[in-house]
Design brief:
The chain is mostly helical. It has one domain. 68% of the residues lie in helices and 0% in strands. The chain is built from three helices and no strands. The longest helix is centred in the middle third of the chain and has 29 residues. The radius of gyration is 19 Å and the shape is extended.
């Protein structure tokens, strides 16, 4: 019997092109395929949750205006720029 809290395993099938891209991305990030897939799945689930929250808000309060959407885009761009500026530079093998 395994000790601790072992991670569940999934067996998945992906298109050959996607498979190669996953392997390359994991290698580029210096992580295992499992770790890379976990991050990708977590981000996809967060996007899904966020989109569901937006849809609920809009059902309750009405659609966002063009001005509100523009402001949201500016805010996201600023956050992404700040994140890029504060993340350590990773050296990629040549």
């Amino acid at each position: 019997m395994p000790r601790g809290n072992p991670s569940p395993k999934l067996a998945i099938t992906v298109d050959p092109e996607i498979h190669e891209n996953i392997l390359a991305a994991a290698a580029q990030d210096g992580v295992s395929v499992s770790a890379w897939m976990t991050v990708a799945a977590r981000e996809a689930l967060q996007r899904r949750t966020g989109l569901a929250a937006v849809a609920l808000w809009e059902r309750q309060h009405g659609r966002f205006t063009t001005g509100e959407m523009d402001e949201a885009r500016r805010s996201v761009r600023t956050q992404l720029r700040k994140r890029r500026e504060t993340q350590p530079r990773v050296r990629r093998p040549a």
